[in-house]
Fold:
Amino acid sequence: MAATPPALAQATPQDPSGEWQPDVETNTQLLQDAERAMPAGARPERGARPGRGGGPGGGPGGAGGPPPGNGGEGSMGPPPGGGGPMGPPPGGARPAGGRPSLKGLLPTQGAFAAPEDAVLVMQRMREAVVFGTSEGRDVVVVPLSGTLDLADGTHATLRDEGGRLALQLDVPDGRRAIYRYALPDAASGALRIDITVEGDRLPGGSVRLQRAYRRMKVDVAAPERATP
Structure:
């Protein structure tokens, strides 16, 4: 990640800094559990895709530039996924033979916060948290005070809730997504991200999903991988 963010913060038991590999098997089960918890008859179909319209590029200068009005911190590019301002319709698309899935209701603007397939890279600083992936050069730097304005009009805020990070995204279509990061058992090298998406257009007014990740490295600064 090619960025020069603020100084490192002192490590805490709930510091999610590191590289995190999605736990595919666990996440498949967590998704199924979350779908079963949704109201009957209000479940979107698998394969639903959010509306498009958000352009690439991190701001007026195009890709790699900081988004406008970023409140002091910036991004080396937009969060992955793009996503238009309207997002997915209620219930999502309904392809023939599709199975229900709530993934289409998650805002694509938050793909950097809890990637489904890519390795999540996080680094907590004193004044901000850096988000990125091991496969890409773009990073998103969200301040711990103030607001980061992404290129499509999404507002990102980050707060510390008793030592645990909570990232909030306010999307132009009225949805609000909150990502809460927890290390339930530091010895196991696992990260859990609880995702809540709220909005008048969503089934029951909100949807909830949890994703699990396994630590790949001791920390961002150490290149050696942890012993299995």
Notes: The two ends are 25 Å apart (CA to CA). The mean pLDDT is 73. The chain is about 5% helix and 30% strand.
